[in-house]
Q: What sequence folds into this?
């Protein structure tokens, strides 16, 4: 495992441990920044997140929200 992946996983674990039950987003954003995460790019439908860190880029691929073909909901304005 690379240093970038190890650092990111440890940082995420720490952020989850120290965040309050309500209003935890600042902890989840600030902790990785302090650990060297420069940017986080993500795509919700594919559950993919790319972290650009001081130790190198890391991609995390989750389970996509859907598979194959499906109905696309209509947008309402």
A:
């Amino acid at each position: 495992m690379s240093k970038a992946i190890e650092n990111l996983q440890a940082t995420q674990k720490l952020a989850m441990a120290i965040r309050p039950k309500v209003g935890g987003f600042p902890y989840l954003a600030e902790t990785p920044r302090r650990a060297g995460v420069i940017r986080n790019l993500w795509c919700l439908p594919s559950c993919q997140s790319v972290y650009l860190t001081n130790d190198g880029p890391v991609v995390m691929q989750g389970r996509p929200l859907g598979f194959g073909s499906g109905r696309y909901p209509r947008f309402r304005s």
